[in-house]
Design a protein that fits this description.
Strand order of the largest sheet: 9-8-7-10-12-13-6-14
Helix content: 10-25%
Largest sheet: 8 strands, mixed
Number of strands: 14
Distance between the termini: 16 Å
Order of helices and strands: EEHEHEEHHEHEEHEHEEEEHEH
Structural class: alpha+beta
């Protein structure tokens, strides 16, 4: 699979002190069957510039001009090989070293399916908002080509606080959490250890969100783990970041009060995925990411979704990600291979999984090449 960038908006205006974060970067991809009126081959430099301005305007100050870039990339391969996994593995754009969020529209000349890929630096923009930026970009392009009367874009999620605040009980949660973490000795990296990555993108329509949560509960139980560590979205002073809630069940996080009671680590940038303290902090937990339900105002039909924390260490705790787009549910599990062998049967009701690979964040030399 090869590719070339056909168009991009005005050059990313990076701040002089911006630094990419190799172990704090998510690669998020979504796939769509293009609506009849969406003429992606005609997307030009000027249209991308207009799209960027429109998306920034509805972002509640999160996406300033120096914080993201929109790109269009044409992919050359056999049309049957044009899949989410193939485009996820393409070299990252050079802009990942210039701005916190890149959004690439990936097209193929013989396919009516297209993909959107993002790399997001979690020090600046969280994953949910990166996904929303992808969908807002598609919304704008459909508005443009279909000449819709309503040109408004969907509002960004969690523009207000998702919980009431970070108070004394949360400090107490944090202190207990850090105390337990201090007693954990992280094993040295084992080159022979393997981490597997399975995602379910053809889940039967009758499967409900709560059912995949029940499957995750069984995973936790069978692995002898006691907690879920789950992200809680925040926005503060134009930054999109997350806190960490630690709970014994996922049901505890279904309400704002429950999330407030379980909030443990304050909002901010997460530590690197391969940092020993981060691995230790998750020693007794399943890292559960609930990306929620998204209903963008688009006619293109969603076909696929993938969440990937680049460079995920094999020693890191099991990760589950759940996301619904246009009512279509997606779920994925990443875990050490022996752990998956013990719990994989719990997910048989979700259809055949796609076995993927955890992406490494490329070095600057590889990107330039």
């Amino acid at each position: 699979v090869t590719s070339s960038v056909l168009f991009e908006n005005s050059p990313a205006m990076a701040t002089e002190n911006y630094e990419s974060a190799r172990s704090q970067t998510l690669c998020i991809c979504s796939g769509y069957k293009a609506s009849r009126g969406l003429r992606l081959k005609e997307v030009s430099d000027e249209i991308l510039k207009e799209a960027k301005a429109a998306v920034a305007a509805c972002s509640e100050g999160i996406l300033t001009d120096d914080r993201f870039v929109l790109l269009k990339r044409s992919v050359s391969c056999d049309v049957g090989a044009f899949t989410l996994d193939s485009i996820k593995g393409l070299p990252a754009p050079r802009e990942v070293f210039e701005v916190p969020l890149t959004v690439e529209i990936m097209i193929h000349g013989e396919s009516d399916e297209f993909f959107v890929r993002s790399f997001t630096n979690l020090n600046k923009v969280d994953g949910v908002r990166a996904l929303h930026t992808q969908m807002s970009t598609v919304e704008f392009l459909e508005v443009h080509f279909e000449n819709r009367k309503d040109t408004s874009l969907s509002p960004f999620p969690f523009s207000a606080a998702n919980v009431s605040g970070y108070g004394e009980r949360n400090v107490a949660n944090r202190d207990r959490f850090l105390g337990a973490m201090g007693a954990i000795e992280v094993p040295s990296p084992d080159p022979s250890s393997k981490r597997v990555f399975y995602r379910f993108n053809k889940i039967p329509s009758g499967v409900a969100y709560r059912e995949v949560e029940a499957m995750a509960e069984k995973l936790k139980q069978d692995l002898g783990l006691h907690y879920f560590a789950s992200t809680v979205n925040f926005q503060k002073e134009g930054l999109a970041q997350v806190g960490l809630a630690v709970s014994e069940t996922l049901e505890e996080l279904h309400s704002a009060e429950g999330r407030s009671a379980c909030l443990t680590m304050p909002p901010g940038a997460p530590p690197p995925i391969d940092a020993p303290p981060h691995i230790a902090s998750m020693f007794d937990s399943v890292f559960y990411n609930n990306y929620g339900r998204h209903n963008p105002r688009i006619s293109s039909a969603v076909t696929d979704f993938c969440w990937d924390w680049t460079g995920c260490d094999a020693r890191f705790s099991p990760i589950c990600v759940a996301c619904s787009i246009q009512g279509k549910l997606f779920f994925q599990v990443s875990a050490a291979a022996p752990a998956w062998d013990r719990v994989g049967h719990h997910f048989s009701g979700l259809g055949d999984p796609v076995e993927g690979s955890i992406r490494d964040f490329l070095t600057e030399e590889e990107v330039k090449a």
